[in-house]
From TrEMBL:
Biased composition (Pro residues): 440-450
Region (Disordered): 438-474
Signal peptide segment: none
Gene3D superfamilies assigned: FAD/NAD(P)-binding domain
Name of the protein this chain belongs to: Pyridine nucleotide-disulfide oxidoreductase
InterPro entries registered for this protein in UniProt: FAD/NAD-bd_sf (IPR036188)
Superkingdom in the source lineage: Bacteria
Length: 474
């Protein structure tokens, strides 16, 4: 009987299990945490209490990996929200406010991370039949430098061996993969870390009456000022609630006290987030997290790679959560595994290496986006911009400015940041021409709100007009 073992029952591990399910008789997912029966936060997800976005590319990958059910419809049925980047978002970028467009496109899913993990896990368990989840701590891998043959798990009676035809490490940011590989005789794998010192602060609010359809509202950090990056986002989530996440890089960290939390939002380049929050009812305290650095293990470049082992998700690369791409990268990595399984038997020599290289190409786009931005903030550790980075950065900045008032440019930008397309999409002739021509619409001096949204903002604002200019309509 063929067996796959997946280390980690987070989103990446569950999606890897979905990819493996059609190819083996049994998939065993191991996690050191006792998983909750419902959408509840668990200790093993350090960023679990903060805002998460399931980007269009990640959603597409999930739909492919769980063909018996529409994961989109399943998530919406459990209470998640669907947001259009083109029409359902109000965003202040470093280059100005994005216009909103009348047609919906580039839809993403928003919810608490607890709900999303639980909903995806239940969908996979219900629609596979051969996936099981066990609570266990993996101690190390078994096998040698040529082939991994299973895992060793800790038990009350001592270590026990679980044999497998393939092992997938999706154990997250704290993966011990490099230690395990060293024990097998595989060394020399580069690991790069870029840390801008980002601190996340999140608080949950009750959605104010009448604001149920208020757009996702975001003030992005600006890396071009030579100052600490500061940002805020209001994300609608299940249960008629707003999840509000603040982010600040080294020297601009958001505070943990409620008064400071609100003041931070009002002191941003535009106070729209603070004005909305000032009249909203808080439901929780402020949650703080520091686990935000970018870290990448270049296992795909190892001189020798054992058959029977694949590394995916945060175990392969962790990304600054400010860019909202981690979950989608994990899903796309699992999709790369599933597509390789559809072409080649997992016992074929070199199978694992081919998957690893495909997964690395998925990581590259998101890694470049995160690191190119984070490396510009003061006090960054590990980041160093090259001449190529600076040239690409100038073009990206010009394209972003164009995208604030050009749907052609905005669509290209969202295709890449939403992980539906690779960076080559930004060099499509139509995109380049749009960037050269600049925005077709005039810049906005205020957020693009409808009259009804503007009225709601004014009714919620209790800041007595402090730093609170009126908002212009769409």
């Amino acid at each position: 009987m063929s067996r796959a073992v997946v280390i980690g029952a987070g989103l990446g591990g569950v999606m890897a299990a979905a990819a493996l399910s059609p190819a083996v008789d049994e998939v065993i997912v191991l996690d050191r945490d006792e998983l909750p029966d419902g959408p509840e936060h668990r200790r093993g997800l350090p960023q679990g209490r903060h805002a998460h976005l399931l980007m269009p590319g990640g959603l597409d990958a999930m739909e492919e990996l769980i063909p018996k059910v529409s994961i989109r419809e399943h998530l919406l049925a459990t209470g998640a929200r669907e947001i259009s980047l083109s029409s359902g978002m109000v965003a202040l970028s470093p280059e100005g406010w994005f216009h909103r467009w009348r047609h919906d496109s580039h839809n993403m899913i928003t919810s608490s991370r607890a709900l999303l993990d639980w909903a995806v896990r239940t969908a996979v368990m219900k629609n596979t039949g051969n996936v099981g989840i066990r609570t266990a701590q993996v101690v190390d891998l078994t096998g040698d430098a040529r082939r991994v043959r299973g895992v060793r798990i800790g038990t009350s009676a001592g270590p026990d061996v679980l044999d497998a035809d393939i092992v997938v490490d999706a154990s997250g940011r704290g993966s011990r993969i490099l230690t395990w590989l060293t024990a097998l005789g595989i060394t020399g794998i580069d690991e790069i870390r870029v840390d801008a010192g980002l601190v996340n602060a999140t608080r949950i609010y009750r959605t104010p009456p009448g604001a149920e359809d208020f757009p996702l509202t975001m003030v992005q950090a600006n890396p071009y000022l030579g100052e600490s990056g500061r940002s805020a986002v209001i994300v609608p989530i299940e249960g008629n609630r707003w999840m509000v996440s603040l982010g600040g890089t080294r020297g601009g960290e958001p505070p943990a006290d409620p008064d400071g939390f609100l003041r931070y939002t009002l002191d941003l380049p535009h106070p729209i987030v603070g004005r909305l929050l000032s009249g909203a009812e808080p439901l929780t305290d402020v949650f703080i997290s520091h686990s935000t650095s970018n870290s990448r293990r270049y296992v795909e470049k190892a001189r020798a790679w054992p058959d029977g082992l694949v590394v995916l998700g945060d175990a392969l690369a962790t990304l600054n959560p400010a860019y909202g791409q981690g979950m989608s990268v994990a899903a796309l990595g699992a999709q790369a595994l599933g597509r390789q399984l559809a072409r080649t038997d997992l016992s074929a020599p070199g199978f694992s290496r081919r998957v690893q290289r495909a997964a690395a190409s998925v990581v590259e786009t998101a890694w470049s986006i995160a690191v190119s931005q984070d490396s510009m903030y003061p006090g960054v550790r590990g980041g160093k911009r090259t001449t190529v980075d600076r040239i690409a950065g100038r073009y990206t900045r010009r394209l972003t400015k164009t995208a604030t008032g050009s749907y052609v440019a905005a669509s290209a930008l969202w295709d890449v940041t939403g992980l539906k397309s690779g960076p080559a999409r930004l060099l499509h002739p139509a995109t380049v021409l749009a960037a050269l021509g600049g925005p077709s619409l005039p810049p906005l001096s205020e957020p693009p709100l409808t009259p009804r949204e503007r009225e709601l903002l004014d009714s919620l604002d209790t800041t007595s007009g402090e730093g609170a200019p009126s908002s212009a309509p769409v």
